[in-house]
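Lab manual, section 2.4: Encoding a predicted structure.

Procedure: take the sequence of the chain (80 residues), apply the prediction step described in section 2.3, and record the output as structure tokens. A sample record is shown.
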Amino acid sequence: MRATVRLNDALLKAAKREAAKRGETLTALIDPGLRLVLAKPRPAPRRRVTLPVCRAGGGLLPGVDLNNSAALLDILEGRR
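Recorded output:
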């Protein structure tokens, strides 16, 4: 069966070069690749995830600086 397909110029040139290097037609090169793509199952669409929002009051403890990772590590490991 014949079909007309529009390909990117660089892709078509590379495919023709590869087919010539293998000693086969462009159709013989494209056919197995297309079969692989069609046989591969499509991933399920990703569902949107809604993350919980904390509405509790409070905040950071006095002296905690979120921009100082070394100090945060000290607090988390009980060195401060």
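Check your result against the sample. The helical segments are 9-22, 26-39, 69-76.
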